[in-house]
């Protein structure tokens, strides 16, 4: 079998009899690549000259980019992308592109080329964030923004945010990334303190989102479900949890869609604390589900 596969990669001038992959015209290879994912194209580029040529074709990579990829490029200095091939533009945009003073990032999923976004806690309006009696900024490598907001104690808990962006047509999910307890390193190992963690089991937190074209979603989650304790403690404590707020649909990148979102627990009958707020993510809905199931990496 190894010999037959080896023969397929040789052309009519090779030692093998009959046509091989080397005889396929580059234009035909490019047509096939239109149906493959970027990682698959890069792997096949190693086969021979025709595959390498097709794997660098602008027409192939143009099809992998979102229709409004120029909007993403406009977030970068022109010298970063001028004279780049479409393949290099895809590679550039598949890395996080910061904007809004670095508090937001947008990037293309490396497999599907679809637009994803994250918003740092520093890009959110957090009630009481300037008062160190309530909140502190904690540097950490566990956040893509390298810092999270840590709540020690507060009575009025409210976090709001908004973003206006020309999202390509798709169905998107918005979710908050939160962590109960304060994490730290001890003797090189990760540990958590729950000294300030309280109040989240009394009443749920309300999450909401709305869009500029009238879409709305809301839900409630109890962040600290003490009735689900097991041998390892509360299963929500000490772990990063993604709280899905809802979905919204974009039919066209123009005009730009404005998304507003929040999480609140403003019942002042009790205090709450011991919560880390990392970021908000906006991801194509089915892409997020496939990643959670391990279909995409």
From TrEMBL:
Signal peptide: none annotated. The lineage of its organism: Eukaryota, Viridiplantae, Streptophyta, Embryophyta, Tracheophyta. It comes from Trema orientale (Charcoal tree). Transmembrane segments: none annotated. InterPro entries: F-box-like_dom_sf, PP2-like. PANTHER family: F-BOX PROTEIN PP2-A15. Coiled coil: none annotated. Pfam families: PP2. This is Phloem protein.
